[in-house]
Specification:
Structural class: alpha/beta
Helix content: 25-40%
Order of helices and strands: EHEHEHEHEHEEHEEEE
Shape: globular
InterPro entries: Formyl_transf_N, Formyl_transf_N_sf, GART, GART_AS
Strand content: 25-35%
Number of helices: 6
Function: Catalyzes the transfer of a formyl group from 10-formyltetrahydrofolate to 5-phospho-ribosyl-glycinamide (GAR), producing 5-phospho-ribosyl-N-formylglycinamide (FGAR) and tetrahydrofolate.
CATH superfamily of the largest domain: Formyl transferase, N-terminal domain
Strand order of the largest sheet: 3-2-1-4-5-6-7-11
CATH class of the largest domain: Alpha Beta
Pfam family, one: Formyl_trans_N
CATH architecture of the largest domain: 3-Layer(aba) Sandwich
Oligomer: single chain
Number of strands: 11
Catalytic activity: N(1)-(5-phospho-beta-D-ribosyl)glycinamide + (6R)-10-formyltetrahydrofolate = N(2)-formyl-N(1)-(5-phospho-beta-D-ribosyl)glycinamide + (6S)-5,6,7,8-tetrahydrofolate + H(+)
GO molecular function, one term: phosphoribosylglycinamide formyltransferase activity
């Protein structure tokens, strides 16, 4: 029996290139998902236009209208919950989320981060990798917890850092790999092959000793 398509909500803050990758994979039939909502904290986020063009409902909540982060996140996740997603994907959502708002979604919310976690949580990851003299850089998809970019990693992708690389050139080369990585991880979740349990990330029913490579 074919599983019911996974209902996915995506949170963005900017151009939405990873969102576009999910839309394209869904349109081509590569991903058996239903994109039910795209939400943003920025009304001008370019990714909202991509969602609208694809016929996906959108939601914009400006944090300035709420007294603090906890109140904003409570409202945001209440509205997301009303859409009844199976999975929430943070795809360039540039806010730290409140632990109380995250708690009901444990194991059902993932984030794509442009570093080989646990290296370089937070911002400016390409610049930090170059400054450290790393030979490899990459991106990670992890389950979201209250710790910034600290949740269990499902999968990573790697690229070599080349002589003469700048933060911009590194970011541009990595972006295509990010798209592949995110779509693959969402596909595994849609196929019910990957899940987060109390003792770690499981894939095909087995506890992963280390993250998968894409």
């Amino acid at each position: 029996m074919t599983p019911t398509p996974l209902r996915v909500a995506v949170l963005i803050s900017g151009r939405g290139s990873n969102l576009q990758a999910l839309i394209a994979a869904r349109r081509s039939g590569e991903l058996a998902i239903e994109l039910i909502l795209v939400a943003s904290n920025r009304p001008a986020a370019e990714g909202l236009r991509h969602a609208e063009a694809a016929g996906i409902p959108t939601l914009v909540l400006d944090p300035a209208a709420w007294p603090d982060r906890a109140a904003y996140d409570a409202e945001l996740f209440a509205r997301i919950a009303a859409a009844a997603p199976d999975l929430i994907v943070l795809a360039g959502f540039m806010r730290v989320l409140d632990a109380a708002a995250l708690a009901p979604w444990a194991g059902r919310i993932i984030n794509i981060h442009p570093s080989l976690l646990p290296k370089y949580p937070g911002l400016h990851t390409h610049k930090r990798a170059l400054a450290a003299g790393d030979a490899l850089h990459g991106a990670s998809v992890h389950f979201v917890t209250a710790e910034l970019d600290g949740g269990p990693v499902l999968a990573r992708t790697e690229i070599a850092i080349e002589p003469g690389d700048t933060p911009d050139s590194l970011a541009q080369r990595l972006l295509l790999r990010e798209h592949v990585l995110l779509c693959q991880c969402v596909q595994w979740l849609a196929q019910r092959r990957a899940e987060l349990r109390a003792d770690g990330v499981y894939f095909d029913g087995r506890l992963l000793a280390q993250s998968l490579q894409v």
